[in-house]
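user: can you give me the structure for this one chain? tokens are fine.
assistant: on it. calling the predictor now.
[tool input]
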Amino acid sequence: MSAQSRKHSKTQALLAERAYAMRCNSTRSESALWQELRANRLGIPFRRQVPIGGKYIADFLAPSIRLVVEVDGGVHSRRRVADARRDRDLRRLCYRILRLDAELVLRQLPPAVEAVRVAIGAFQANGRV
């Protein structure tokens, strides 16, 4: 195994560990949204805290339509540049990103879920599912 392959494997293992830790310690807003997305409740299977793109962890991913749903809490107001770079990198990998404010998810869950439904519907209408 080359040094490059070992480094890649180590990075993937670290991402997988971090994703597992994040699944075990979800925020209240992530937990609330997960209850609505899990078990194909919107007609599309979602996974949570998924390593993606070799260096990111998506809050929620619908692999069949390459939709990433991010729940942005207060820390994201200070990470706008990093979030924009991440979104750009993921779009280059043909992912679509939907960002939901954590407060919206906590205080008005139905509209947050509806935003996800609309995103799913847009992909289905374009024959992408």
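assistant: here you go. Residues 114 and 125 are 16 Å apart (CA to CA). The domain at 3-125 is CATH 3.40.960.10 (Endonuclease; Chain A).
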